[in-house]
Fold:
Amino acid sequence: MLVVAIVYGPVSSWRLGRSLGVDPICQRGKICSFDCIYCSLGPTTAKSVERRIFVTEDQVARALRRAIKRVNADVVTFSGTGEPTLAQNLGALIETAREISGLPVAVLTNSSLKSRKDVREDLVKADVVKGKLDVFNDQLLRMINRPHQSLSFQKIVEGLKKFRAGFRGKFQLEVMFVPENMGFSREIAEIVRSVGPDEVQINTPLRPSPTRPLTPQELERVQKDFEGMNLRSVYLAAKPRVGMTVGKGKMRRLKRSD
Structure:
């Protein structure tokens, strides 16, 4: 069942500017391959690695046509009520969004399914892909990201490297720091360096979350382990102003109205 809106925003994003969101999952509950301890959406309702169609290209096209007439945006971003790569038609949705909006298309993904060829083939159609990697081994993965039982740290890293090798757009990699992983910043930085993203984003949960964010001083300390990489930090990044928005109910649910 569709919830509130497929398209929402634009959101003022420190990563992407004025970001018009498209939710390719669009369900009442959160459907994700992870159940991260810090997720602002709360617990995962259905933990899954099964790809299927949640919304159609026609539904996205209609919603985008309405939204584009009302708002000004810099980018169309696939994110929302779950892991976007669970949408089996993600590649077609990306192409639809670009055709309708005339804007660059970004996908925010937790990187869990990049080991799959079909997922990589869909993601390479985007202009920007923001993945994430919060850990450096399976034990921490189970503690922080609480993945579907079929997933492993090694598979996730292998998928990241395969995707990086074949992607010609901008590849960003986020590390979300919380108290539980801040003591492993050096080990995480070594893995991130081996993947070689275009940009590394040092983040901590500033939206309402089950876990506390790191302070600016704590985040500055862990950031030192990433020196030499192209870094952006959530506490230092500027956020643009946005004007008219659509899908305000969805934005409130996703805690994107800040």
Observations:
- Residues 49 and 150 are 8 Å apart (CA to CA).
- The first strand starts at residue 7 and ends at 13.
- The chain has one domain: 7-253.
